[in-house]
Amino acid sequence: xxxxxxxxxxxxxxxxxxxxxxxxxxxxxxxxxxxxxxxxxxxxxxxxxxxxxxxxxxxxxxxxxxxxxxxxxxxxxxxxxxxxxxxxxxxxxxxxxxxxxxxxxxxxxxxxxxxxxxxxxxxxxxxxxxxxxxxxxxxxxxxxxxxxxxxxxxxxxxxxxxxxxxxxxxxxxxxxxxxxxxxxxxxxxxxxxxxxxxxxxxxxxxxxxxxxxxxxxxxxxxxxxxxxxxxxxxxxxx
Length: 238
Known about the structure:
Elements (H helix, E strand, L loop, with lengths): L2 E5 L13 H6 L3 E4 L11 H6 L2 H14 L5 E6 L2 H10 L5 E7 L10 H4 L2 H10 L6 E2 L12 E2 H5 L13 E7 L9 H8 L5 E5 L5 H4 L1 H8 L19
Parallel strand pairs: 1-2, 1-3, 3-4, 4-7, 7-8
Antiparallel strand pairs: 5-6
């Protein structure tokens, strides 16, 4: 059985996976859904101000240590793709699968800021204007969202190449927000890379909340997703 470590995107906590966790557990797997440092309800201002990408990668690594996890499947949504990339690169072989769920897939030296679109850079800048260190959530959305540490969006990831030796690396592209997604170019880049499998889901960005059954099925490899060649719902470069 697999051990899944689920990492949320910006402004979110473990609750963002609340509909997916029981589906994976029902299939017999161990699941850890994280709330990253600076986004927990009891975190003080100093914690939010000092949390960065290294802090969040450390959250994942401490979980692997504490639970004595080997062969982990790391799942990162949105900004969480930065986190699982950094953590997996430092995990000393304890990660066997990476799933970037409509998430950033950085190369060495890239940050969430440098990888995103101008639209989202404007969101980050405007959201941090009042404090200079925390980005308030964009309008609308779940009221449980919290201000996100700005430094984690800005810090460049440092990758050694260990990430490239992870046996299974997957990217899930959500097609339901084509007019706003910053991931179209990333999808095309990864679809042309034989080291990656690219899947599609016909949902908006928050696929784990809009279609938890579909997300769980993809994570469980149902519907032929692990067969050779493109699986149903999977897109390769034309």
